[in-house]
């Protein structure tokens, strides 16, 4: 069994997929309020030996949702910049110590990489935050969400798919 993500296409032959963005085709056989429900419907079709290669899940009424995570301050910005710079500096320092030519790992390049990474991280974070001039004093996370998710099927199997999903809808909720 292959596990795939919502945007992956494993299981479909590469020759059957369009190379350019194209609208989906097929007849609607189900409509769901969450992606999870639409995915469950397709899993139900697959469990009943339905030809799922003819099925497409389409997100309709797309919206960009930006969730505010927290307020930004100079302390948070500089701390985050220092930590991310330290990680990158540590990585570079370890690479330098491995290829320095001496016997074993030397710790001087690791320490230099760590300290210089922290400094660069601090400087770049400060410049970036200062350039906003207080217009964006919060951090957020963005996500593309659909208002509903339609399950489409190619016409040759749409009626059978619709019947299977009707049986799924009639099952008692657990």
TrEMBL record:
UniProt feature, compositional bias: Polar residues: 1-13
Keyword S-adenosyl-L-methionine: no
Annotated region (Disordered), positions in chain: 1-23
Coiled coil start-end: none
InterPro entries: GSP17M-like_dom (IPR025889)
General stress protein 17M-like domain: residues covered: 29-100
TM annotation in the entry: 77-99, 105-130
Keyword annotations from UniProtKB, A to Z: Membrane, Transmembrane, Transmembrane helix
Protein name as it appears in the record: Magnesium transporter
């Amino acid at each position: 069994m292959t596990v795939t993500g919502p945007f992956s296409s494993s299981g479909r032959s590469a020759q059957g997929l369009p190379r350019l963005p194209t609208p989906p085709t097929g007849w609607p056989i189900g409509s769901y309020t969450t992606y999870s429900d639409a995915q469950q419907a397709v899993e139900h079709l697959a469990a009943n030996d339905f030809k799922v290669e003819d099925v497409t899940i389409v997100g309709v009424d797309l919206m960009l949702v930006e969730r505010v995570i927290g307020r930004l301050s100079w302390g948070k910005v500089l701390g985050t910049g220092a930590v991310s710079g330290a990680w990158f500096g540590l990585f570079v320092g370890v690479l330098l110590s491995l290829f320095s030519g001496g016997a074993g790992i030397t710790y001087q390049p690791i320490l230099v990489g760590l300290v210089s990474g922290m400094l660069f991280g601090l400087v770049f974070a400060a410049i970036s935050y200062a350039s906003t001039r207080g217009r964006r004093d919060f951090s957020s996370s963005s996500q593309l969400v659909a208002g509903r998710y339609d399950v489409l099927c190619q016409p040759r199997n749409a009626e059978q798919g619709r019947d299977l999903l009707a049986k799924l809808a009639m099952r008692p909720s657990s």
